[in-house]
Amino acid sequence: MRRRSFLNIASTGALSALALAQSVSAQMGGMPRGGMGAMMGRLPPFRSGLPTGLPLPHLGTLANQSAVLGDFEGTLVASPYNASLVSDRTTELWGYNGQYPGPVIELREGQRVAITFANRLDLESTIHWHGLAVPADQDGSPMDPVDPHTDRLYTFEVPIGSAGTYWYHPHAHETNTLQVGHGLAAPLIVRSSDDPLQGLSERTLMVTSLGLDSNAQVITGSTSMSGMGAMMMPGMSELLVNGRRLPVHTVTPGATERWRIINATADRYLRLSLDGHYFAVVGTDGGLLDQPLPGLSEWLLAPAQRVEIVVSMNTRRSTRYALRDLGYGGAMNGGSDIELMTVQTSGAVALAPVELPRILRPIVALGPATVQQQVALSGAGMGMTGAFLINGKRFDMDRVDLETVVGRVELWEIVNASFMDHPIHIHGTQFQLVGRTVRGVPIAAALPGWFDTVNVPAGETVTIKTQQMLPGKRMFHCHLLPHEDAGMMAVLDVRAAAS
Ligand code: C2O
Ligand code: CU
Ligand code: CU
């Protein structure tokens, strides 16, 4: 088989070899980015003293306390706690129910959900259900903070058709780098009753970044160095999978597994690849694609994005393979090649390969767009004084930046005039990719699927089609957490349709 390298650099879908070459040269072209990348490359690798080689843990799930059959009721307590991550040291983490990452919330399409959030932190927080279309007043936006040491009940219904991999995290005003960086983040999985991949054995891989100082205390890119944060973090933190540094996932040779991978890092692009294996991408942020994309050797997962892949393990027994982040050279966030997890085949007899279904689920294309909106990303200055803006402005939750109407299909042109990439996320909906423009050359997206976050590379324009079905004010923002905290966020007011 020809090695197919699939860099979804703007996540805009399958690129032709030509488009790929263009985007790779665009990555290399910009002087500031090349220069920064080179600078990052010279930093010594960060060593936190975290143990490696422990088994890949299964993440605990949040208990359903509902007495009503079919409903989901749960409690999430966010509080500081002491963890022993490094020998002879205690690390103060902040966790949901004392776990890093927090408990997995397992939901079903159509389910009624009521989750009590007990904020036992000394600062205001919220819970945001990243990617799920819940009503605006249940979205955990910074407009709706939960005061320290108070409780709040979130209620919503899981949308039909939303089966997929999501995550939840705080969304308080200007303190998300701090809160997520201390461990407040966890997977949320929505299941449907007719999942075509139901029979496959499945793992959720939550990738987080954890910065520890020499005393094993958490360091995050604080808001005071907001502009700088995204540049400093990669050198100061380690990448963990399900809370462990370089864990070992033991598999039966030949086993076919479905992995739900979540990029829950503060600001790290993950160019994922598994040594000695090709894989099929079967799902993105909003769930399954229309059909599997097989034969891939790598996949770019921007911060906050999710990908579902199916891997058939090599049939060789007792062999180790590394799941790695190849390093994203173009962005300043790109670190060097780093191993994330070891996949170890056991000594058992190899399993026969599993054939994937040709069709996963229909992806209905959004209708013709009736309105076009411009979203301009810009950077001003660098380092400590740096600021990243949307349409020339810093976030102000009392201002409305864009308006739309429930049900209206819009084309959003997201133009990145800054010197680095920004993963742009819209609340309240899943959108479709239309295309991108690289140095004036338009490239159509060829990946029918649903996204809530799209990478917009420096100097490029990414076009998406989006539609909001619920009224209210919604955030859209860069998901590099230091940028979000620094105000690279805006408000979309979704008005009820006139009847
Ligand atoms: Cu993952 Cu506005 O958030
Ligand atoms: Cu979100
Ligand atoms: Cu950004």
CATH topology of the largest domain: Immunoglobulin-like
Domain count: 3
For CATH, the homologous superfamily of the largest domain is named as Cupredoxins -  blue copper proteins
Shape: globular
Q: How big a fraction of the residues is strand?
A: 35-45%
Largest sheet: 6 strands, mixed
How many β-strand stretches?
30
Helix content: under 10%
Average pLDDT, to the nearest integer?
A: 87
What's this model, at a glance?
The chain is mostly beta strands.
Description:
- The protein is mainly beta and 499 residues long.
- It has 3 domains: 17-48 and 198-345, Immunoglobulin-like, CATH 2.60.40.420; 72-191, Cupredoxins -  blue copper proteins (Immunoglobulin-like), CATH 2.60.40.420; 371-495, Immunoglobulin-like (Sandwich).
- Helix content is 9%, strand content 38%.
- It is built from 5 helices and 30 strands.
- The strands form 6 sheets. It has a 6-stranded mixed beta sheet with strand order 10-9-12-17-14-15. The chain has a 6-stranded mixed beta sheet with strand order 21-20-23-28-25-26, with helices on one face.
- Strand 14 and strand 15 form a beta hairpin.
- The relative contact order is 0.16.
- The model is unreliable at 1-43 and 222-235 (pLDDT under 50).
- It binds CU-O-CU linkage and copper (II) ion (2 copies).
- CU-O-CU linkage binds next to strand 5 and strand 29.
